[in-house]
Specification:
Length: 68
């Protein structure tokens, strides 16, 4: 079942950041839609194959801070 969740991500400032976040999510089978102005990422993922926690970790590994 696909689920969509909006998470706050601090530190994204440019198109490079957008790509870094999107590319970090792709291997998890998740899709991220970054809203730079809002500092959020709308993540669409399959909750039976990946957890929101794993998604947040993948984003944080790129150097950004997430909050629920
Ligand atoms: Cu950037």
């Amino acid at each position: 079942m696909m689920k969509a969740e909006v998470i706050e991500v601090k530190g994204m400032s440019c198109e490079h950041c957008v790509k870094a976040v999107e590319d970090a999510l792709a291997p998890l089978g998740a899709r991220g839609e970054v809203d730079l102005a809002a500092g959020t990422v709308k993540v669409t993922y399959n909750e039976s194959s990946v957890s929101l926690e794993a998604i947040r970790e993948a984003i944080e590994e790129q150097g950004y801070e997430t909050s629920a």
